[in-house]
Structures are given as structure tokens and as C-alpha cells.
Write a structure and sequence with these properties.
Elements (H helix, E strand, L loop, with lengths): L5 H6 L3 H38 L18
């Protein structure tokens, strides 16, 4: 019974199959690196914007609503 699935297992572990999987991992890794770089840039931009602009006062009559376009 276990021998029935051995052909499928072996065919997915050929040299070409392993190379294709390695290429997919490289592509995913590169995409993940770009995503992290973008997130870091957004975080730096948000931190820079927060430190460079004065905070808008919170109107106690409106709860915690702050006009972010001020």
C-alpha cells in the first residue's frame, strides 16, 4: 500500500523539482525583503511626520477624535 505513493514522492524530489522549489523560495525571500524595506520606510516616514508636526489638540467635547488633516 505504501508503495503506491512512492512514484509521486520521488517525482517531486527530482533535481529539476528541487531547483524549481529553490527558485520559488528565492523569489518569496526577495519579495519578503522588499516588503520589509517598504514597511521600514513607512515607519520612518510616520515617525518623521509625527516628530516634525505639532500635535493637534484633542477637543474634549468630541471624545478622542483628532483631525489628521489639520
Amino acid at each position: 500500500m505504501a508503495i503506491d505513493g512512492i512514484g509521486t514522492t520521488l517525482s517531486s524530489h527530482t533535481v529539476a523539482g528541487v531547483r524549481a522549489q529553490n527558485e520559488q523560495v528565492r523569489t518569496l525571500g526577495a519579495g519578503f525583503s522588499k516588503l520589509l524595506e517598504g514597511a521600514a520606510q513607512v515607519a520612518e516616514g510616520a515617525q518623521g511626520a509625527a516628530s516634525s508636526s505639532a500635535a493637534a489638540p484633542i477637543d474634549p467635547n468630541r471624545g478622542q477624535t483628532v483631525d489628521i488633516f489639520a
